[in-house]
Amino acid sequence: MHRLEEADVLLSEVLETDPENGNATFCRGLVQYDLHNYTMTEELFLLTLNFTTNHSGALYNLGVLYTELNRLSECVKILEQLRESDHAHLLGHTQLGTCLMKMKDYARAREVFTSVLEVDPDHLMALQNYGIMLIELRENREALEIFTQLSRLDPSDVAFVRQAELLHQHIQKRSQRKFYTDGSTQD
């Protein structure tokens, strides 16, 4: 925490002498975020949008901030701007999908996640959040495919492996149920 406060002081000094320094403005926004001063963070990132440097970074980090603060409609607005202005910012596009998922706009979230995965089929964050959404939608077979892929990509991540195992067990259990003509089941 002390180092963050030192960094904030140094960046403030830079901005006193050069208020048009977009890099310092952006970096100070990152420091303020880490210090949990979200009002100042938002102000600095919005100010960064006036400069040509770090424009995509400011949009992305505003999206992350708005997601954390549960200001989801603002998150979508900012991250759609990022998506339009920087087609290669896959992390920002993934954050947009995550925000849409939190808003329960699953159709748009699916479109965003799949567009990211078309460009980078191994994008861990997009895969993970898409898999979580599929679980929410009870699309367990597709979610199993995603978490199996994640387990292969990062076998050291116990959560991916465990989620794939749980999905596999759930699917197995459901397929083993015996259905009777009256609609009842026996487990």
Automatic annotation (TrEMBL):
The keyword Hydrolase does not apply. One of its GO terms (biological process) is negative regulation of apoptotic process. GO terms for cellular component: cytosol; endomembrane system; membrane; mitochondrial envelope. Pfam families: TPR_19 (PF14559), TPR_6 (PF13174). Keywords: TPR repeat. GO terms for molecular function: protein folding chaperone. TPR repeats lie at residues 90-123, 124-157. It comes from the Eukaryota. SMART domains: TPR. The keyword Amino-acid biosynthesis does not apply. InterPro entries: FKBP4/5/8-like, TPR-like_helical_dom_sf, TPR_rpt. PROSITE patterns: TPR. This is Protein O-mannosyl-transferase TMTC3.
